[in-house]
Specification:
single chain; alpha/beta; Rossmann fold; seven-stranded mixed sheet
């Protein structure tokens, strides 16, 4: 297998401010389609990339948060503009924190969406349930397409419905089981409990009130650990605020970026 260099990525829009977007364990960069459109219309250049093994990219021998962060750093170095903001959702938020920890000079601001700073955030019972609901169906021979859409519905607020949600659920059906299982292992090994204390740039932690995967209380704690952390909770939504309550989500993120960059 050839060495893994840059992830598969897309570039949308033109601006001297680039927003880099990292997806979660379920999906790929493609589930950000409507979110990318919103940010491009708001005047940003957007670079969205696939984690290793996702989308059309090859599955590596192993995945880790540090490894994914290092690949993301190569992408930022190759494609950045004058000002750069990193947005990570769920697993992507863990990767984003490690990028900011390893190479803080590459980004001016950080947006952490429905994520956590450690797999230890809610105790062993939560950890066991997380692994059971995500990995057990695969070990029982079920395909991701057979169970993941219904599981993701349970991670959203009641009545969640939008083109962005429909598009995300479609893209989840296209995932590779092998890459997903490796990603879950990487998440379970992410135990850098004190990492947020090392982040000095402006950082927004945006959470869903009903998110049990990455609870709002965990994200509020994260924000409090950061030198310039901000916390925002979207009422009535779960894990996918950018699809469940798109107008509010994008307004909050755009307002934060404007403040952080002095736009």
């Amino acid at each position: 297998m050839r060495p893994y260099r840059l992830p598969d990525y897309t570039v949308s829009g033109e601006s001297d401010t680039t927003l880099f977007m990292l997806h979660g364990a379920y999906g790929s960069k493609e589930y950000f389609r409507y979110t990318i459109e919103r940010f491009v219309h708001a005047g940003y250049r957007v670079v969205a990339c696939d984690a290793p093994g996702y989308g059309i990219s090859e599955v590596p021998p192993a995945l880790s948060m540090t490894g994914m962060a290092e690949i993301t750093i190569r992408l930022i170095e190759a494609t950045r503009t004058t000002r750069n903001v990193l947005l990570g959702h769920s697993m992507g938020g863990m990767v984003a924190q490690k990028v900011a920890d390893l190479r803080p000079e590459l980004i001016e601001a950080l947006v952490l969406s429905a994520t956590a700073h450690t797999f230890n955030h809610s105790g062993p019972e939560w950890q066991a349930d997380f692994l059971r609901t995500r990995v057990a169906p695969l070990t029982q021979g079920r395909a991701i397409a057979d169970y993941a859409p219904d599981l993701l519905r349970t991670m959203m607020g009641p009545g969640a419905s939008s083109p962005a949600i429909d598009h995300a659920l479609y893209n989840i059906r296209l995932m590779k089981s092998e890459a997903f299982q490796k990603a879950i292992v990487a998440i379970s090994q992410y135990l850098e409990d004190d990492l947020p204390t090392r982040l000095k740039m402006p950082a927004l932690c945006i959470a869903g009130e009903l998110d049990s995967t990455c609870p709002a209380s965990v994200m509020q704690k994260m924000a409090g650990m950061m030198a310039q952390g901000e916390f925002y909770e979207i009422k009535g939504v779960g894990h996918y605020g950018w699809g469940e309550r798109a107008d509010e989500y994008h307004s909050v993120v755009e307002g934060f970026i404007a403040r952080a960059l002095g736009r």
